[in-house]
Amino acid sequence: MRDLPVFTSRLLLITLAGAQSFAAPAPAGFPFTDEALKFSLNMPGGPRLGDAHLTSRKSDNGWSFELGMDAPVPLFEVHDLYTAKANADFCSAEFTKKFQHGKRKGGEREEVDRAHGTVTRTTLNGGGKSEFSIPECTRDALTLLMYTRREMGQGRVPKTQRVLFGSMYDAQLVYTGTENVQNGGKTEVTDKVVCTLKGPKSNVQIEILFARDAARTPLVMRLPLAIGSFSLELVR
Fold it and tell me: What does 126-141 look like in DSSP terms, one character per residue?
């Protein structure tokens, strides 16, 4: 009987070890791990025009995000690259965009100085600089997408806020219900969020269909361009 406590302790350790081996795997993808997603770039319901990617990498200083799109469409090529750096609270530190839409090309970088509440915007390839004030925790458009995924995973939709996208835009996100999509040969139920960006010279509306997984993976993103709407559709 003296050995009973020792035996019981060993049995408990073995039981716990066995339970851990059958524990559910840790969630994958953003915001739990680094992530690299690939998309096809299509006309809605039409042919594939190109490819796109969305990546996120976590570091001690926060997050780095990248969204790239390439569609070598005759007479109207599309080549976009957006990069962003943000802290752990998804407050922007830097946002860069480079684009080619047909013959129209451009690019700029926005660097955030949170201590002074300002942003310095630099036009790339020898352009000028300007500075303007921002709220305390401002998000750029790309970081807002990733922040929305984090919030959706916790059952929330981000409130209306000011975002960086060259100029300052008012971003309103509205959950509009569910939508079924075909992805990877099967039908998936998604949660649809419509994001409206209102700026000084233009208004943009983007539709995002989020999977109901822990990472709230974007399965479809519908974007407007000069020649019509495009959709990014996740490639499994």
Answer: T--EEEEE--SS-EEH
* Whether the bond into 74 is cis, omega within 30 of 0: no
Q: Is 69 exposed, middle or buried (0-12, 13-18, 19+ CB in 10 A)?
A: buried
Q: How far apart are CA 127 and CA 166, in angstroms?
A: 14
For the chain, the domain total comes to 1
Q: What is the span of the domain harbouring residue 158?
A: 56-234
Q: Does 164 fall in a domain? A: yes
∠ CA 156-162-165 to the nearest 5 degrees? Answer: 110
Per the CB < 8 A criterion, the answer to whether 73 and 121 are in contact is no
42 with 229: CB under 8 angstroms?
A: no
Q: What is the pLDDT of residues 97-137, one digit of tens each?
A: 999 988 889 999 999 999 999 999 999 988 789 999 999 99
> Is residue 38 situated within a structural domain?
no
Under 8 Å between Cβ of 90 and 81: no
Hey, what are 3's tokens? 């050995």
φ/ψ region of 103 (left if φ > 0, alpha if ψ in -120 to 50, else beta) reads alpha
84-99 confidence digits (pLDDT tens): 999 999 999 999 999 9
Please report whether residue 16 resides in a domain. no
